[in-house]
Amino acid sequence: MISFTSTQLWVHDQDAALDFYTTKIGFVVRSDVTVPEMGNFRWLSVGPAHQPDISIVLMAIPGEPIMDDATRAKVEELTGKGFAGTLFLTSEDVDADYATLVERGVEFIEKPSDQIYGRDSSFRDPSGNHIRLMTAREMG
After folding, report:
1. Which of 52, 112, 128, 139 is most exposed, with minimal Cβ within 10 Å?
2. What CA–CA distance (Å, rounded) separates 51 from 31?
3. Contact 134, 86 (CB under 8 A)
């Protein structure tokens, strides 16, 4: 049996990402480990408190020997533009969660609106990653 546990987002600054995902979104830290033997590589993950088996790894964009300078620059640029991946979050009440997140300082790109698939909105994290927050509508 195969299960889903984690996904990864590139982030420009792990500390800024940690603050955003915990303070503003309300996630909890799953792990925050620095490995000196791997050049102080930091494994940082967060997730919803009510889903302890799910995590998002907030991965610093690496340099050499993992990525050359040109590749690293492209990944940084694509992340900053919101094109390195999208995080899809669901909510029982997107309008209430929208109000809470705005109160916490999250700047939305799209306010909640009705779509064929549900009520949907979007915002970005400090690195530019695109995040959608929606309440799904039952589809026949």
Report:
1. 139
2. 14
3. no
pLDDT of residue 140 exceeding 90, the answer is: no
Which tens digit of pLDDT belongs to each residue from 84-115? 889 999 999 999 999 999 999 999 999 999 99
Q: Which residues of 26-55 are buried (b: 16+ CB within 10 A; e: fewer)?
A: ebeebeeeeeeeeeeebbbbbbeeeeeebb
Terminal CA-to-CA distance of the chain, rounded, Å? 29
What's the one-letter identity of residue 94? V
Question: What one-letter code names the amino acid at 110?
Answer: E
Please determine, for residue 81, whether its predicted confidence score (pLDDT) is greater than 80.
yes
- E-strand ranges in the chain read 6-11, 28-35, 41-47, 55-60, 86-90, 108-115, 118-124, 130-136
3-class secondary structure, 72: helix
Q: pTM of the prediction?
A: 0.91
Contact by Cβ (8 Å): 59, 83: no
